[in-house]
Design goal:
Blueprint lengths: L1 H19 L6 E10 L2 E10 L11 E7 L5 H15 L5 H10 L8 E6 L5 E5 L2 E6 L4 H10 L6 H7 L3
Antiparallel strand pairs: 1-2, 2-3, 3-4, 4-5, 5-6
Length: 163
């Protein structure tokens, strides 16, 4: 019985840790904001283990703090549009998985993606785990929207990378 109790406590601790902070055990690399016309859309922060950006070294965490209300469908459409614009080899399955887990966002909401060394990508909404995508190609494809040399906002890309 004692072993089950210890196992349960460990499981609860690990579950709480995953829910509590997508930025656990990582350090800030850089931050900036994204605007459209005269409106600030979101503030963005990028984290890595040592606070330095290296494209293929994980974990990496991207945190977006929204400054406007944005409908889920608009978020999904913008994601796919950016993948297409960047020439990212994306999959319709990813859009279906995002549709199943993402909410619409309101001002002051936080959406975070944590890409693990295993390749699993976990999304958090206001520090609550939303779900995960296990395809190891997803995390780098999603991060490319902000970190690609051809991103829509090169200034934000430089800021996120700590340049």
């Amino acid at each position: 019985m004692m072993k089950k109790g210890v196992w349960l406590l460990w499981w609860l601790f690990m579950s709480f840790s995953l829910l509590a902070s997508p930025t656990a055990n990582v350090n800030l690399v850089g931050q900036g904001s994204m605007s459209w016309l005269f409106f600030e859309l979101y503030q963005a922060r990028l984290y890595s283990v040592d606070g330095q950006y290296q494209a293929d070294r994980f974990p990496q965490v991207l945190v977006l703090n929204y400054q406007r209300d944005i409908d889920k469908e608009d978020l999904l459409d913008a994601t796919v549009t950016e993948w297409q614009r960047l020439g990212v080899d994306w999959k319709w399955q990813w859009r279906r998985e995002l549709n199943a887990m993402w909410p619409s966002v309101s001002k002051r909401d936080e959406l975070a993606l944590r890409v693990e060394p295993s390749g699993v990508s976990r999304f958090y909404f206001n520090r609550q785990l939303l779900g995960e995508i296990k395809d190891p190609a997803f995390g780098p494809a999603f991060l490319a929207i902000w970190l690609s040399p051809n991103s829509r906002n090169p200034s934000l890309t430089r800021q996120l990378k700590g340049n």
